[in-house]
Amino acid sequence: MFRATALAGLASLLWISTAFAVAGPRSEVRVRPVVATAAQGTFPWLLDALTEWEQEMLLCASYRASNTPKILLLNYSAYDSAYAGKVYAILARLLPKAELTVFWKGSPQELAAQLGQHHVVVVPYPANDRERLARAYGKVLRQYVLRGGAVVFCGTDKFGILQQYNLFDLDFGYFCHEVNVHEDDKAHPIFRDTPEDFVPINYVYPLDISDQAYVSLASVRGYSTIGYKPLGAGKVLYVGIEYYYDEPVTSQILANSVCWLCPASACSFSAPEEMGQLRENETNISTVARPVRRVEEQLYAGTGALANAVEIKIYPNPYLEKAFVEFALDKATPAAIEMTSESGTRVAVLLPYRSLNAGQYRVELPNVSPGVYFVKCQLGGQTVTRRVVKARA
Fold first, then answer.
1. Based on the number of CB atoms within 10 Å of its own CB, is 273 exposed (0-12), middle (13-18) or buried (19 or more)?
2. Pairing of strands 150-154, 99-103
3. Contact between residue 64 and residue 266 where contact means Cβ atoms under 8 Å apart
4. Cα 241 from Cα 251, distance rounded (Å)
5. 3 state DSSP class of 10
6. Helix 134-146 and helix 108-115: axis angle, to 10°?
7. Which of 21, 22, 33, 303 has the most C-beta neighbours closer than 10 Å?
8. Span 11-30, pLDDT tens digits
């Protein structure tokens, strides 16, 4: 009798919340907050009174019938809030019809209540576990996937955090830059409208996967960069790419991944020509401190084929207030220029990633604090790094 009453009570709340949600296309009232509040806040005893199957049926009925892709960003372990914001912005731009929800931290029960309302969970750059919740969250995510949910992990240089989540087995992971990523299964929907081989401007994070159920889709030097593991009725996907830069190919792979994991009726994304395009009037990107990286993969001016083809000048050097980077291109070339400190921290984006036509170019350096800096010019898939000194006045 008690269970029947509890079930009827939650069903009534779900019906009322659905009525609000369909009141109009601009309605700000959504099913998820009402159900989550009823289940976890006002009436927590209702969920305790139900079996797992009954909880699943009530909490998932609305999202499974929805034609709107519902994505939860699990930001708890993200490297920093700025990175989590970049992933959010990419998904919001490329999947404008999706409903995005952010979960920073809470109890495993609170996370479970949120999961029941979403098709896909995206975990941006997992790197931190300050509250030691990753293992507990991993258990909740496992149950969610077993019942038909999907989880996407973005790439990370902290492969140990993936082991804490414990959704697939891996032995080792590393990071690399300016390497060729090969799509081993080019026909897979994740790679729709992308080249079979590409060199991302972002960092790449290959893994040494020991899980026999894991299916590798793309690789770097024999190590999986993109792949998935079927788990119960759902999937766990790893996209081993960093998303500090919103670039055409990698951003499209992320959007394609979410669409592949959502029900077909619930997902559509922007036309390919819109993917990753930067506005012509965009002159700056917010600067974000990255983890310190190794630099032995950089090509210094005068030591490689690109350096012989493209002459890069920085003048004056040292400089007091203003300095300029000058170079000439003889053909259209993808390019990006950034300035970093000696420790590898990015201090300024001088030229956001874009395709430049043939011609002469001059880019101004910022008036930063006195010290030694490096200007990294990424041109046509290779990098030339020059040292510059900001002198004291």
1. exposed
2. unpaired
3. no
4. 10
5. helix
6. 30
7. 21
8. 555 444 444 333 333 223 23
- Extract the tokens encoding 351: 């030229």
pTM given for the model: 0.58
Answer whether residue 290 shows pLDDT above 60: no
Q: How far apart are CA 187 and CA 381, in angstroms?
A: 24
Q: Which residue is it, tokens 């019942």?
A: 147
Query: Could you give the angle at the alpha carbon of 391 between the alpha carbons of 388 and 392, nearest 5°?
Result: 160
Type of residue numbered 47 = L
Inter-residue contact 164 to 134 (CB < 8 Å): yes
Q: How far is it, in rounded angstroms, from Cα 252 to Cα 248? A: 6
What whole-number distance in Å separates Cα of residue 85 and Cα of residue 145? 25
- What local confidence, expressed as pLDDT, does residue 11 receive? 53
Helices 2-21 and 52-64, axial angle in degrees (round to 10):
10
| Dihedral angle sign, alpha carbons of residues 375, 379, 381, 382 | negative
For residue 318, whether the previous peptide bond is cis, meaning omega lies within 30 degrees of 0, is yes
d(CA 40, CA 33): 10
Question: For the chain, where do the domains classified as CATH 3.40.50.880 start and end?
Answer: 66-271
CATH tag for 299-390 (out of 2.60.40.1930, 3.30.70.660, 3.10.105.10, 2.30.42.10): 2.60.40.1930
CA distance linking residue 75 with residue 81, whole number of Å: 8
Determine the CATH number of domain 66-271.
3.40.50.880
Token pair 């077909």 is found at 264
> What's the pLDDT at 262?
87
Average pLDDT, the chain: 76
Distances (CA, A) of 282 to 61, 249, 277: 43, 19, 11
Q: What 8-state DSSP symbol labels residue 1?
A: -
Burial label, 162 (beta-carbon count in 10 A; 0-12, 13-18, 19+): buried
91 contacts 122 by C-beta, under 8 angstroms: yes
Q: The tokens 């109890």 sit on which residue?
A: 107
Quote the tokens at residue 5: 């009453």
| Residues forming beta bridges with residue 238, ordered by sequence position | 153, 227
pLDDT band at residue 353, thresholds of 50, 70 and 90? confident
